[in-house]
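Please, is this right?
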Amino acid sequence: MSEGVKGLEVRLRQGAPIPLNAQLSCAPGEVLALVGPSGSGKSTILRAVAGLTRVTDGHVSSNGNLWYDTSERVNLPTRQRRVGFVFQSYALFPHLSALANVMEGLGALPPGSREGRAQELLELVRLGGLERRRPSQLSGGQQQRVALARALARDPEVLLLDEPFSAVDRVTRQRLHRELGQLRKQLRMPIVLVTHDLEEAVQLSDRMSILRRGETLQEGPTFEVLTHPASRNVARLIDQKNIFEARVTAQRPRAGKTQLEWEGNTIEASYRSEFAVGESVDWVIPTGSVILHRRVQPSRGVRENPVHGVIEDMVRLGETMLVTINVDGYSAHPLFMSISAHAAARNTLEAGERIGISLRCDDIHLMKARPADEDEQDQDGWPQNPAGG
């Protein structure tokens, strides 16, 4: 975050009990998603921001005000940090009504003003008329709204959400996603969201921070992280299915192209001057950027990085078909293509069929070649990438 811009800034480092080497920033009005496998330190980071956990070395500030800084010996207690925290379990008082639960967060207001303000907050999260119900009389989605209203009762500068939608069904989750999207426009505060659901992170966040074993691997605008992962490890963690190795064979800056040799195939990517001819690189391409060659009236696109192979498998995912392709001359792992179910039917695609495809040049992203950790596929508890190589 640039100097002078208000928002949340965090740097946390420690060796134990939970290793951390994390940094993040979140501006007012932004949603930052912390994404990573179990044990990557996501919830620990939230607790450190809220003052519920103290790390060995760190800095936490909001709007330029220090909340925690080991070098300055500053450590404000939780009650002095303007943080709203929604826990995964919601942590509602079961014996209190929704209204009383929210009033518990209004201790800074005069007693006579608390009920009216709690009512306003319940209206804000669309719970008007249910204020007298206890948590056991509310649905999971309604309990989540009460927890959010109570978090907002602290008049926070920062809102922290720790897996807030994990306990509700998919339909309710989608509705809550829409409501959060509308509510954030009114809140205008940094919102940090911890989630195990990559789709949820993509849908809700402006920025994404990829964590692994307590370390920030990459942080940036969500679309940038998804399309330009910093490394093979990041590509795996955001569930990129097409991750391969290649060698740079030519640099053609005037044409804006970097030429690669990939297992006997010559392909081109957008020009990347930092890679030398002869250098090994990792590269990724989204499944949606693998284009099927039409049998009738082939398009001009067939000349763009053409590759041929045989369909190994086809899996329908809603209105999309995920097609697994064994590329000619390459047996290490398959290439994946996503195509609309309608287009797959129109082209009568079937397993065992030979097809031609093109790899969109502008969508091929090159990365420094780094060996993947030997245990990362089995130990991280994160979506496994069957094309991981």
